[in-house]
Specification:
The strands form 2 sheets. An 8-stranded parallel barrel has the order 1-2-3-5-8-9-10-11, surrounded by 5 helices. It has a two-stranded antiparallel sheet with strand order 6-7. The chain is 39% helix and 17% strand. The protein has a single domain (2-286), classed as TIM Barrel (Alpha-Beta Barrel). Helix 2 runs parallel beside helix 3 (93-106). The model has no long low-confidence stretch (mean pLDDT 96). With 292 residues, the chain is an alpha/beta fold. It has 10 helices and 11 strands.
Amino acid sequence: MKYTCSVAMGPVEELIEIAKAAEEVGFDAIALPDSLFYMEKQSTDYPYTPDGSRMWNADTPWVDPLIAAAAMGAVTSTLRFYTNVLKLGSRNPLLLARQVGSVANLTNNRFGFGVGIGWAPEEFEWCGQPYAKRGKRVDEMIEVIKLVLAGGMVEFHGEFYDFDKLQMSPAPTEPVPFYVGGHTEVALKRAARISDGWTSAMMTGDQLAETITKLKALLAEYGRAEAPFEYQAVCIDKFGVDGHRELAEAGVTDNIVIPWVFEGLGFDAPLEKKKDAMKRFADTYIHSGWQD
């Protein structure tokens, strides 16, 4: 099982040092969250909390995850980065293809593209994108981005996007992995059908095990049972070496953690305390040999 350090809701000015520390202590990757803006009033519930409220406020810091990946990639050499997850529905696929390809090239193929639809109508409408038919449109967006990133002269004529032959150079020298987020049946089917992995929001160990079982059945249904597939998990109730062993046995391949939050230090803990928490976490889980 791999370990990814999430930098959700942390100060932007700490990201470079967090990346360097994560690589130094042995993390495999950094997970980069996405939020475009904080609307004063939300018209629909946030889907990943019991009461539908957001876990952040207007002053919570965010940074564009693609720009962050490029900046953090410049000060590291082995650490990987992936969006967790970028909301496709409010964006344009050709512009994203240029951005994703640039990050993949600048990081020497150390970038994975985690994608979701987006939950807030305001993010769609205020960015000039329709909220209606968002699922079908995102499916087409993924198709467009993959097509362009593969390189060469390409064209696309779909229901939502239509363009004649074009080329973006340089194309990444390796395929960019795509990871799909979401807990609904539709999202799980999308992940199994077209992606290289699935990424969770906050879930219990039992929920993760159940979802991974569903995904494996869907992969078999789509003829992809033997295809490499990542199960990236944010677990809220499995701690200690025994808990991590249970997650690995359930099929989790990538455990997304925030060490300083797990220690009760909070998202805005001082940078040095975050580094110390990362070192303690790595000693306990990454280098302890429990997976040998």
